[in-house]
Amino acid sequence: MDFFITNAHAAAAGPQADPFGFLLPMVVIFGAFYFLLIRPQQKRQKQHGAMVAALAKGDEVATSGGILGKVTSVSDHYATLKIADNVEIKVQKTTISAVLPKGTIDAA
């Protein structure tokens, strides 16, 4: 019955696929992700770290929860905020999202 089946031979009729052809699009995609997502996030993280490290007594701040207060003391990981007369709270320094211009809380 072998006379009905023709033997298939590997033909070198077409060009061989480049083994590194898929690598270029992957590099381009990684480069796009780096410049559009990773790098800006690292930049924001660095700016936030610098802002938190520069906190000082008397700064007016806003927390990520929306609380406005004036910094009364700062330790390594915590800051104490005065949010009203005779009301002070202790928050983690990383929850402070912005340092406000002086006089912002009095005007609000």
Please state the average pLDDT score. Answer: 87
Distance between the termini: 95 Å
**Count of spatially separate domains:** 1
The beta-strand count equals 5
Query: Main beta sheet: strand number and arrangement?
Result: 5 strands, antiparallel
State the assembly state of the protein chains.
single chain
CATH topology: SH3 type barrels
Strand content: 25-35%
Q: What's the architecture in CATH terms?
A: Roll
Order of strands across the biggest sheet? 4-3-2-1-5
Structural class: alpha+beta
CATH class: Mainly Beta
Indicate the radius of gyration in whole angstroms.
Answer: 30 Å
Low confidence ranges: none
Q: How many helical elements?
A: 2
Elements, N to C (H/E): HEEEEEH
The helical percent reads 25-40%
Give the overall silhouette: rod-shaped
Q: What does this protein look like?
A:
By secondary structure, this protein is an alpha+beta fold. The chain has helices at residues 23-53, 104-107, and strands at residues 60-63, 68-74, 78-84, 87-92, 96-100. The longest helix is centred in the middle third of the chain and has 31 residues, at 23-53.
Briefly summarize what is shown:
This protein is α+β, with helices and mostly antiparallel strands and 108 residues long.
Helices and strands in order:
Elements: H1 23-53, E1 60-63, E2 68-74, E3 78-84, E4 87-92, E5 96-100, H2 104-107
Task: List the keywords.
108 residues, alpha+beta, SH3 type barrels, 5-stranded antiparallel β-sheet, 32% helix, 27% strand, rod-shaped
